[in-house]
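User: Fold this, then the next.

Assistant: Folding the first:
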Amino acid sequence: MTKPLILGVSGASGLIYAVRTVKYLLQAEYNIELVASKATYTVWQAENNIRMPPDPQQQEQFWRQQANVITSGQLTCHSWQDVGATIASGSYRTLGMVIIPCSMSTVAKLATGLSSDLLERAADVQLKEGRKLVIVPRETPFSLIHLRNLTTLAEAGARIVPAIPAWYHHPQTIEDLVDFVIARTLDQLDIDCIPWTRWQGS
């Protein structure tokens, strides 16, 4: 079985990034271990007027319904409080971890080595084990504190992929812009499962 990919979702605006990442990874039959932070519940309510269920098994069905992928791939959801979960241990082997979207609060905690919940602990594990950690910050503008924290994480080995789309692929919809960011994010893990047109040269 393919090693799982950890998908972290923190309390930054832009849950469409997380939903479409789940969609494409499941369609490509990836094994996803998903953990959403406590603040994500608030963001779901604010952005979509939807309540995300707290029970991990109900969350699995919730994310599948939002992504409109009911049977493909493997999805396991974890409670943000479950610091004893598999993904909290370095002995649990993974492909790496993506945090999309990533709040500046989460960035700050990771940059200072704090692990107050499962999402932060799982990310800290990727860094200490030398595995791939990809962070997709969704904030603007960045303060000097934000930039310094992101620099600290980059120096520690994380890849920083800001949620900044491009236009050379001639996007026609919001989803096209979102998918560009997701494609460039998954490129950092050598995962190519997004239908989009790469730069072909001028």
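Now the next one, as you asked:
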Amino acid sequence: MSPQYTEQEGLRLGLVGWVRNTRSGTVQGQVQGPAEEVEEMKVWLSKEGSPSSRITRASFSNQRTIDKLELSGFKTRY
């Protein structure tokens, strides 16, 4: 999955966070924002993704409610 498309989707939804490709061909990241938009991002990551991606599985972990955002912007990490 191209981090560029993921970054664009996160920004479109008004989320903050980061995303990166791993050496094993997976994508890792952290997303924060309103619960409804975070859920929409999870659906996008699970079912659509970037145009050239082949999604076989999506796993989300360490989910929690926060009082205020801990990150700013949405960035691609390398």
